[in-house]
Amino acid sequence: MKKRTGLGRCLAAFFGMMAAVVCSGFTSLAYDSASLTSCRVENKNSIVIEGTAQAGETAEGETPDDGYYYLFELQPYESGIGNRTDYLSWSNKGSTLSFTVPYSGDPADSRLYSRFVVALKIGDSYEEISGPIYITNPEAAAGYTEEYPDSMSKKGLLIELDMLGDALNLGVKHTTINIPYHHILGGNLAYQYNGKTYYFNEDLISSYDRMISAFSGKGIIVTAILLNGWNDAYPELHEAGLTKTGANYYGFNVSTAEGFETTRALFSFMAERYSGAHDEYGRVSNWIVGNEVNNNQSWNYVGPMDLQSYTKLFEKVFRVAYTAIRSQNQNARVFFSTDYEWNRENTTLRYAAKDFIDLFNAGIRSEGNIDWGLAYHPYPYPLTEPEFWDDDEAGMTTQSEDSPVVNFNNLNVLTDYFQKSELRNADGRVRHIILSEEGFTSDSATRGKVYDIQAAAYAYAYYLVDANPYIDAFILNRQVDAVVEVEQSCAFGIWTVNMERTDKVEALMPKNIYTVFKYIDTPSSLKYTEFAKSIIGINSWSEVIPNFKLEE
């Protein structure tokens, strides 16, 4: 693996870009500057924006401003106020800023998604003197206010719907569902939103209703992964000018007015339907925006671009999704996911997870700190071998922040990093982390069937997660092997699959991991994981797991 580019250079470039944005409206450094520090919905009928201002002095020969501060509203797709004169509010000059603007209280109100800037009037034009700020509490508009559901354990599994009975027998507490938006648009299910009518695929939505209600109705916490494939009929789903490539998924588009409206309607439709307000549809408690978004090339394609530009583009998408979801379900959690390539050389298509997280967090903090979370994928390295405890031997995992890969072998690097003050949320709490996709193959690329090692790897990984207070869930990929994955030596399931059936998933035989999975979070756990110690090369679990919870 190549050495990554220096994070210091990335952040320096990012903050340089931010400074350029903030200062873009200045005619001269002599004019006033402003900083917006708070933007919140109050009493469901107003938005209060607060901040500070610093007076400047007009140089000789410069046109003075008119003595007031003006508040402008920008949509996500607008880059600045340009020649606009339609300010929302004004105030007398002073060291503190406070603006109050009306808000309807409706989650569909576009103002909930806006960002706000302060400007001076200089001559006949308005010049921005602050960076932007977004609303940080869209949950104030939510109609569904039930608390986030409690879970008895962190044990999760990607479930086949027709094997729900098996999943319940296994004691599954968490699951994931993929929702590809490009399949949803078009159909006969009408949805009225913000004065427009959108039509969705009724049969597909009904299948999600059955799945989500079945899972959440049994007390399983559902995590939905929002994905955007290619759809020729709806080009507004993709960045303007983008052409179809071999990417698996594409980035959501909020860079144009039409793209923003359509994307927002899709997010809002799903968020409201699965908010928990409708028993017949079920409840999604966690939402993941995109898949492994530090991989622009394959999983979130928006065209080649540098890390700073790419991250800023994703920030806008994430805020739209976050606002749509939290304005429907007050306590839903919203995540983005990355792969395990913690440090790598950043290109125009693939980026280090750590660098992406750092830049995303810095941008979110500077423009309104919302409660984002991370959905991480700590597979073994490589995916075609189940052992992770020897990944350090090849230099792929270390106990340093500069580790090329962060997976189960050094998972503490991730959670230690997220305990830093600058990574915490606005309340000072460590952000929510879930492991939303990871697995251990039972078909080694070099040794063939290794059912016992797969089972040992799961036992070790689960104990590591269970002892780590900063990880909320561990969702194993998957209940049944996927044919296409098995063909690549990635047999992650706890059941084997009929390789002759490409039309459906047909489970054949439970593997060794099945029993381990079933009992891993029960009082009998140690009985079913004793075999794993000799495989891993230990005498006791406490040798390799700090604060191991069970008595050996």
UniProtKB/TrEMBL annotation:
<keyword id="KW-0732">Signal</keyword>
<dbReference type="InterPro" id="IPR043780">
    <property type="entry name" value="DUF5722"/>
</dbReference>
<feature type="domain" description="DUF5722">
    <location>
        <begin position="148"/>
        <end position="544"/>
    </location>
</feature>
<protein>
    <submittedName>
        <fullName>Tat pathway signal protein</fullName>
    </submittedName>
</protein>
<dbReference type="Pfam" id="PF18989">
    <property type="entry name" value="DUF5722"/>
</dbReference>
<feature type="signal peptide">
    <location>
        <begin position="1"/>
        <end position="19"/>
    </location>
</feature>
<dbReference type="InterPro" id="IPR017853">
    <property type="entry name" value="GH"/>
</dbReference>
